[in-house]
Design a protein that fits this description.
elongated; alpha/beta; 4-stranded antiparallel β-sheet; 6-stranded mixed β-sheet; 14 strands; Alpha-Beta Plaits; 11 helices; translocase
Length: 330
Amino acid sequence: MITISDLRKVYRQGNNDVVALDGVSLEVPTGKIHGIVGHSGAGKSTLVRCLTLLDQPTSGTVAVNGKELTNVSDDELRNARRRIGMVFQHANLFDSRTTEQNIAYPLELVGTPKKDVAKKVSELLELVGLTQFAKGYPSQLSGGQRQRVGIARALATDPDVLLCDEPTSALDPQTTNEILELVKELRNRLNITVLIITHEMHVVKQACDSVSLLEAGKIVEHGDIEAVITNPSGRLASTLLPLPGDAPQVDGAGPVVDLLYTGDQATEPVISGIARKFNTDVNVLAGSVEHLGDQQFAHLRVQFAPDADLGAIVEYLKSAGIAVTVKEAK
């Protein structure tokens, strides 16, 4: 588990204070994959450095599995850092080392016996699907293979947390999907907690159980994927499940409503059900249905006939667990 409480980081630049993190609080349960999204300058890189205590926070605390990292001795901090595996954007491998030597590096640093190193490296190579590339050098590997080496190296010390900093932004779409599937598989097999820092919503859609939106050093939106998707007033909902095009309404027709729903409802004939129950026409203006993580979600914009009983329809939809937003007439 990762627990961040009221984390602040202020840098001094000349005569000015620059607030990079402004009271960030977050908890990621054991075995979950959490995404931190935000534009450049939002504070994502600073958050990574404070999580690993490469930068000392100005105030606040960071804890992994109940062990606070912000107020420990240097020896305790070194030991605690071994419980956090880091995966970087460009893998950061040693060019002069083979795949197996790169994976072995963290174990060599802590004086692990050679026999134990060899056994662990062999297990990790199999785990990430690189056994046949054990003797290869980084220059001989594809981008996805290099990232797999980086993940294996991050797992060498059996960490409790895997911290991934933009792990797929340098990869093509197919390789991105493969790496994200690997991360999910590792989470399932090892019950490891994963924190992914990213600016790519596709990463959140495919891999994350929950997400936070970081903006100007603050978390401005946070929740499980289902919670943020079905929050019609949230910014993450429209970003994760956008409507195609401008989704215009028809002039002279009735009220326009956005619907957000998930799970079994996403496969139910909601529109035809409304038409039958209320004996009204329903025009679908735009819509998208897709899987996010292991769940299916739907986002529709519909327009009813002018004489439709909008109040009754909205009440019916909300009672079925569907998030409803009535659009203002143009």
